[in-house]
Amino acid sequence: MSTITAGEPAPDFALPGDDGKTVRLADYRGRKLVLYFYPRASTPGCTIEAHDFNRLLPDFTAANTSVLGVSADPAKALVKFRDKECLAFPLATDETHDMLAAYGVWGEKSMYGKTFMGIERTTLLIDAEGRIAQVWPKVKVAGHAEEVLAAAQAL
Predict the structure, then answer these.
(1) Fewer C-beta within 10 Å: the chain N or C terminus?
(2) Where are the alpha helices (DSSP H) in 2-143?
(3) Distance between the two ends of the chain, CA-based, in angstroms?
(4) Is 96 helix (H, G, I), strand (E, B) or coil?
(5) Could you give the CA distance from residue 14 to residue 25 in angstroms, rounded to a whole number?
(6) What is the pLDDT of residue 132?
(7) pLDDT tens, 63-96?
(8) pLDDT value at position 2?
């Protein structure tokens, strides 16, 4: 699925955020950005991943790095997820799948013998100039946020 590679400019985006405002790539210019794509709010893996990024948020902030979670969930689901899990970083939705496709994370998946369209759990680290510094495709949640933090601190 993922066709994005390090060194490329990050595709521009403007998405509805969990606060009702539009979230844009340009909002993060001058800061590094952890852009992580998760399949569905309030599912076990996505909840653990969100908690891990949330727990490390002060360390990301100290490394001049913002965190943004993106899914195809409706905005109402994002608000519920953010509030229930006490997340201190923003979430955004791409119900049209345009941005997800531009980042190469939307495509055919299969589980339990069924094929469907969905998000491949992927994380990108975008540098302060808006270029992709690192890509983690097919993320395994355990220890992932720590690995991304280490990369952000080293950048």
Answers:
(1) C
(2) 44-55, 57-62, 75-85, 98-102
(3) 26
(4) coil
(5) 7
(6) 96
(7) 999 999 999 999 999 999 999 999 999 999 999 9
(8) 57
Mean per-residue pLDDT, 115-130: 91
Domains of the chain from N-terminus onward: 14-154 (3.40.30.10)
**What is the C-alpha separation between 85 and 28, in angstroms, rounded?**
24
* Paired strand residues for 32: 65
Q: Is 153 helix (H, G, I), strand (E, B) or coil?
A: helix
User: Is 46 designated active site?
Assistant: yes
CA dist 37 and 10 (Å) reads: 14
Q: Is the pLDDT of residue 31 over 70?
A: yes
Mean pLDDT across 14-35: 96
Q: Are strands 65-71 and 91-93 parallel, antiparallel or unpaired?
A: parallel
Residue in the structure block whose two tokens are 């066709």: 3
